[in-house]
Amino acid sequence: MVNQQHINAITLNGYFHMRHNVAYANIFSAFADKWKTFQRQPMAVKARHAFVNDTGYEYKSASASDFKENFHLTRGYQTPPKATQIDVEFLEYGKSLLDEITPLVQSIAQVISAAGKFDITSMVMGMKDQWVLRCLRYFPRTMAQIEANENLLAVPHADQGLTIRIYEDGAGFEVLWNGEWIAVDPNPNCLMAYPGLVGQYYSDCRLPALCHRVVSNHETELRGRNSIVIFIGFGEVEYDSRNGRIKDRFAYGENYLMPVHEFKQLFIPRLVPAVA
To answer: Most exposed: 3, 43, 108, 186, by fewest CB within 10 Å?
Structure first.
């Protein structure tokens, strides 16, 4: 049975937290350690995992607005030749995590289905092989870099599909709600879930795609910031990029009050298997 408190939370706040047991907390923490170990390898080693078709290792330089490194992992990701033992352990543990978290994802999809009054559960579960486990590390920044980017690690934006945040090692995540930026502190005992643009589409705008950002603070200036999320694409439509980049088109909650018919005009039929 769907927890009514979760439905109330996503309706009132744009997101909800789902508590999990200590076994999951240990799994997520252990995987975060493997991600941090992977990071410490030489760039030449990490670069063997070429970023192709939205999977693999991605590096964004200090000149980019979001100075970071990412790894995008799916169940079908192929380990490259000459992989190190660190690579293998990181990848195998990540794929195992995607299997372990399946019951929680199903429960989250059921909450969003109930709140949005449109059942997305079968679409979400039918795309299991395309779920993307995304590991992020924002690098430490100088004051000049921070000021040049308006104190932001990640600029305001909405996501495309369903987003589940499973790990954060520092504060800084904020959501835009009721015209204010609201800090959401990390909780190692909970997952955080919120809908993206496709969720808003299928819910007839009952559940707006949540606008969010990551801000810098003294701690992240010194040591950076790590997070791990799961991106889940689903459905038979996708945002039409001819309407502008998502992070530009919906940077400050422009989607929140859009009429249903106007919002749905921004989408086209999905021609390829869904990815986040």
So the answer is: 43
* Structure letter (DSSP) for residue 52: B
On the CB side of 241, CA atoms within 13 Å amount to 4
Strand partners, 70: 58, 136
Query: Is the overall model pTM greater than 0.85, yes or no?
Result: yes
Structure tokens at 229: 């999320």
Closest CA to 214 of 161, 254, 257, 176: 176
21 vs 246: CA distance, rounded Å = 35
Query: What is the rounded (10 degree) CA torsion for 188, 61, 41, 24?
Result: 20
The four Cα atoms 123, 233, 20, 2 give a dihedral, to 10 degrees, of: -40
Which homologous superfamily does the CATH classification assign to the domain defined by 4-269?
Answer: B-lactam Antibiotic, Isopenicillin N Synthase; Chain (2.60.120.330)
Under 8 Å CB-to-CB from 237, ≥6 apart: which residues? 198, 201, 267, 268, 269, 270
Kindly provide the b/e burial profile for residues 153-162, where b requires at least 16 CB atoms within 10 angstroms of the residue's own CB.
Answer: bbebbbbbbb
List of residues 6+ apart from 178 with CB closer than 8 A: none
- Domain residues of the chain, as ranges? 4-269
Using one digit for the tens of pLDDT, what is the confidence trace for 59-86? 998 777 788 999 999 999 999 999 999 9
